[in-house]
Amino acid sequence: MDLIDRYLAAVGRHLPTTLQSDVVDELSANLRSEAEGMAQRLGRPLEAADQEQILKPHGHPWLMASRYQPQQQLVGPALYPYYRQALVMVLFWVVLPMTLIGGALAAIYAQDSGQAWGRALGAAWSGAIYSVGIVTIVFAILDSQQVRITALDQWQPSKLPDPQDGRAVPRSESLFSLIANLTFLMIWIDLIRVPQLATWGGDEVQFVPSAVWSAVHMPIIVTVLVTIATSFVDLMRPWRTALFSLLRIANALAFAAIVVVVLRAQHWIDVVAPGVLHDRATRGDYWINQSIEWGLFVVLAITLFEASHEMWQLLVARRGRRV
After folding, report:
1. Does residue 22 register a pLDDT over 80?
2. Contact indicator for 119, 102 with CB cutoff of 8 Å
3. Whether the predicted pLDDT of 166 surpasses 50
4. 175-213: buried (b, 16+ CB within 10 Å) or exposed (e) per residue?
5. 241 pairs with which residues across the strands?
6. In the chain, where are the structural domains located?
7. Using alpha carbons only, what angle is made at residue 267 by residues 264 and 268, rounded to the nearest 5 degrees?
8. What percentage of the chain reaches a pLDDT higher than 70?
9. 168 Cβ partners below 8 Å, 6+ apart?
């Protein structure tokens, strides 16, 4: 694959799905025409250095794609690509951590998780308004003063990634995985407290976890953190490389091994109740542990399916690359 193909693929990654085909086709025709003209002038096929000379004046793929995006008048075309990226960085590096950290701190003092998340989301909403407002004001001032940002002027076409080294990952999938795993992690490390006591007929009943949960406590934290990290990277860069696919497969298999260890314990919760509730506690103990067993088998099946699906996607990508 030559540099022009890699450039077109890189431009397409920064475009909305509805625009990718038309824009890439138009740009491809222009670049191929320039390449043919240069090849005729040189009297030989173009080398990588020749293709760089063609691509360099067109600008970084991000800037090229931004020329086809709807523009806003408050921030002009020259700064608008940087403005959009600054907003994304603020939302994901400021507002999202504010929500999660705020939720964790609120969960420590709040009486229930709903109240904690309500406070955290309120703080995040206020932070988002202030952050977006500040970024917009800064870029509006820069645009009014005709300040030019030159950070991407020194980009090198030869360093563009090969599109066949990765595959597209929907941002909705990454966002769901990020939120779900962060919520689970906060519950697992007891930042969001789950009530452990219940009453039957006015008598207190306690559900005591078995020792296996302590044994797998830290391994589960590690696997969940890896999933959170890879989901965050997929969210910021929505195409997954072979290295990240292998990392997710290994992490899924590690989590599956943890589930197998938990399953082998065969008993996961002890129901402790006063003697007058012994029979009811025994039945409750049986059905609670039976439900946990079924749930663990479902989790194991889903985890193995995700690992198999990721492996299949990786093999399909590699087969396509050889073709």
Report:
1. yes
2. yes
3. yes
4. eebbeebbeebbebeebbeeeeeeeeeeeebebeeeebe
5. 166
6. 1-70, 71-154, 170-322
7. 105
8. 70
9. 238, 239
